[in-house]
Specification:
With about 280 residues, this protein is mainly β. It has a single domain, classed as Porin, CATH 2.40.160. The chain has an 18-stranded antiparallel beta sheet that branches. A hairpin with a 5-residue loop joins strand 16 and strand 17. It is globular, with a radius of gyration of 20 Å.
């Protein structure tokens, strides 16, 4: 008795499952607009804190050769903070990056992923080595006969509000024909497809950042660190061609903001848990 045909099907199922859940681990191509709060801080400086964000990702290149695949894109985030009661975070803040991904299949039941995203975290007044940073993921996947997979690795990502290395561990499965599940850290996502043109999802993910800025009235450069986790429910609708419309509502948890005001003093706050919304248009091909 041989399992070769079954393993071939497993790899196809696993590849489909990974593709369906890829937005949990990487930036999806498209344009998004999000708004957080504002909320009164539970503790620390200020009387109100909020953020609006515009995000754009454009595909550049994708190549496949045998068991290897390489892709690249251009990414831009622009954040505007509203920290009432302080003189901190008065600029516009940008993350301009070049996400790169390398994937290699290892035999019939394993895959290796390497993601690197070099970029500038800046208010556009600082564009030098101090504002240069890189997100990175090193991940291995082990596929099972059912098409599910386990993934293990390590990640460094400014969305945690710092650049400390953290573990990656997750399990992905397809419990029903229309539902895909990724459970783990740092991202969890459960997605259900109601038709070829409509799906819904629930996910948990980090959504903070780090920026380098100049502060009015001060000399030198300063860092701003924002820690934030988003638990959201959203929907996706196939509009036309390769374009999908998305909308999401949710709650923010475990928030922390640290920045420097115009007197040169480091100010901190713990914004209260609050609601956010996000809308966008995705490009899928």
């Amino acid at each position: 008795m041989t399992f070769i045909p079954m393993m071939t099907d497993v790899r196809k199922i696993g590849a489909l499952l990974a593709a369906c859940l890829c937005s949990c681990a990487a930036v999806a191509d498209g344009l998004y607009w999000a708004n957080e709060g504002p909320a009164t801080p539970d503790s620390g400086a200020g009387t109100e804190f909020g953020r609006s964000e515009l995000s754009l990702t454009l595909p550049l290149e994708r190549k496949t050769r045998g068991a290897e695949q390489v892709s690249s894109s251009f990414h831009l985030d622009m954040s505007k903070f509203r920290w009432t009661g302080t003189t901190a975070l008065q600029n516009d803040y940008f993350w301009m990056s070049l996400p790169l991904e390398y994937r290699q299949k290892r035999g019939k039941s394993a895959e290796f992923l390497l993601r690197a995203e070099p970029g500038f975290m800046t208010d556009l007044n600082v564009l030098d080595s101090e504002s240069l940073a890189m997100n990175a993921d090193l991940i291995g996947r082990i596929y099972r006969r059912s098409g599910a997979f386990w993934q293990f690795g390590i990640t460094v990502n400014r969305e945690f509000g710092d650049f400390n290395p953290r573990p990656v561990i997750a399990m992905a499965a397809k419990p029903t024909r229309d539902t895909e599940v990724l459970l783990g850290f740092p991202r969890t996502r459960i997605q259900t497809r109601w038709s070829n043109d409509l799906s819904s999802y629930v996910h948990l993910r980090p959504a903070g950042g780090v920026w380098v800025e100049e502060v009015k009235g001060q000399t030198g450069t300063f860092k701003a660190n924002y820690t934030n986790w988003k638990l959201g429910f959203g929907g996706e609708f196939h509009w036309r061609g390769a374009l999908w419309l998305t909308a999401e509502l949710g709650q923010m948890r475990h928030r922390r903001i640290v920045a420097t005001d115009t007197t040169g003093v480091v100010v901190k706050a713990t914004p209260a848990d609050d609601r956010y919304w996000q809308a966008g248009i995705e490009l899928r091909y």
